[in-house]
Specification:
The protein contains 8 helices and 8 strands. With about 240 residues, the protein is of the alpha/beta class. The chain has one domain (about 1-235): Alpha-Beta Barrel (TIM Barrel), CATH 3.20.20.70.
């Protein structure tokens, strides 16, 4: 499965064509799905362009994208940078009026299990975000509900390609006992090498302006759809088990 991550916690200062509003996210999702994305991850924004978990913003973003790509799963973030207090984050989840299909929960953040429980109680799938270089993998595996999540997001935070590939291998080893699908991805300069590793291992992966602003050849990506098309080509032509 190839997921598109439309915007992330970035701003227009980093990417002038970053989709922020509900209508922009819908248009970006439509183009990305037409290019081959099978799942959508997005960060709802407030009027200032900052990530938010407020019900109205989540409803607007999810509704617009769902209407643009009917039948395609749509997910959102629950990152602590949007709301620092984990109890407040869980309360915001319980206040959502339009429910996404899934939401990511970062297991190195305080209160991850409370936020995950709030999502599961509402019938929302949990993507367990497991960052490299943190104790998140063991925390997640020790959680009694680990088998109930939709998938694990194995998130490689190292951005030097060689370091990222080593970290990815270690992260996958740490998650070997996880009884759930794994989506492996990297960011910035490591995004494409890690995507190739995921393709070689036939793992789910993702690409989009949240993770990387450049195509695999180094050219600036004009939009999410261009990143998805490039990822599709790499996945199509990567043999199983190829070392990276």
């Amino acid at each position: 499965m190839l997921q598109v991550c439309l915007n992330g916690a970035r701003s227009r200062a980093e990417c002038s064509h970053l989709p922020l509003t509900a209508d922009e996210l819908a248009a970006a999702a439509r183009d990305a799905v037409a290019a081959g994305a099978e799942d959508v991850h997005l960060h709802p924004k407030d009027r200032g362009g900052r990530d938010t978990l407020e019900a109205a913003a989540v409803a607007a973003a999810v509704s617009a994208v769902r209407a643009a790509v009917p039948g395609v799963p749509v997910g959102v973030t629950t990152g602590a940078w949007a709301t620092a207090d984990p109890r407040a984050r869980a309360a915001q989840v319980r206040a959502w009026t339009v429910l996404p299909d899934h939401a990511s929960v970062n297991w190195h953040e305080d209160g991850a299990t409370d936020v995950a429980a709030a999502l599961l109680d509402r019938g929302i799938g949990v993507e367990a975000g497991i960052y490299s270089g943190t104790p998140a993998a063991q925390r997640f595996l020790d959680w009694p509900g680990s088998g109930r999540v939709l998938r694990v997001l194995a998130e490689v935070t190292e951005t030097t390609p060689q370091d990222a590939l080593l970290a990815a291998a270690g992260l996958l080893d740490a998650l070997a006992s996880a009884a759930t699908p794994i989506l492996l991805h990297g960011e910035d300069a490591a995004a494409w090498p890690v995507l190739r590793l995921a393709a070689s291992r036939r793992l789910d992966t993702r690409i989009g302006l949240e993770d990387v602003l450049h195509l695999s050849d180094g050219a600036l990506a004009p939009d999410n759809a261009a990143l998805v098309r490039a990822a599709r080509e790499i996945i199509r032509h990567t043999p199983r088990g190829m070392p990276y």
